[in-house]
Amino acid sequence: MSRTLGRIRSHRQHLLKNLGRSLVRSERLTTTLPKAKELQRLVERWVSLAKRVQESSAASQLAGRRRLIAQVIELDVVRKLVDDLAVRVKTRTGGYTRILHLGHRLGDAAPVAQIEFVDRPAVKAATRAKSARTAQATPVAPTATRVKKAA
Q: Rounded distance, CA 60 to CA 55, Å?
């Protein structure tokens, strides 16, 4: 059973497809928690289909790409799914995305979350750079700080 997200079926489907295309393009997206959970289901299916297309023979690759195009609509997103994301997650059996809870939105207190692909290249590079910096860092003696007394 899926969430209705306060919308009729056609609007909900278009909303999720638009969010899915944005997620594939940018690999990270901030939205409300219920939308992120529904989006995760959709994008996981797209990535699984893209993996099957990537692993199949040349003749069935075309049929698989056409099936993805029918669902996703935009060719640049399908190319990225098949040529980039499917290759990156080849060894994974699932769980291609993660949802990070960010708290509540001001104004209506809706729960906000960030959905992203687990193995984003920018995250991997930043993690490697951070670990390299901490390994090379030399210990520094703490300096005395001056504290103002309350009047």
A: 10
Residue 100, SS3? strand
Taken in order of first residue, the domains within the chain and their CATH numbers are 9-125 (3.90.1030.10)
* Amino acid of residue 86: A
The backbone torsions φ and ψ at residue 8, rounded to the nearest 5 degrees and listed phi first, read -75, 165
What confidence tens digit (pLDDT) does each residue in 90-112 have?
Answer: 999 999 999 999 999 999 999 99
pTM of the model as a whole:
0.79
- How many Å apart are CA 20 and CA 22, to the nearest integer? 5
| Residue bearing tokens 């990537």 | 54
DSSP letter (8 states) at residue 89: T
As a whole number of angstroms, the distance between CA 63 and CA 42 comes to 20
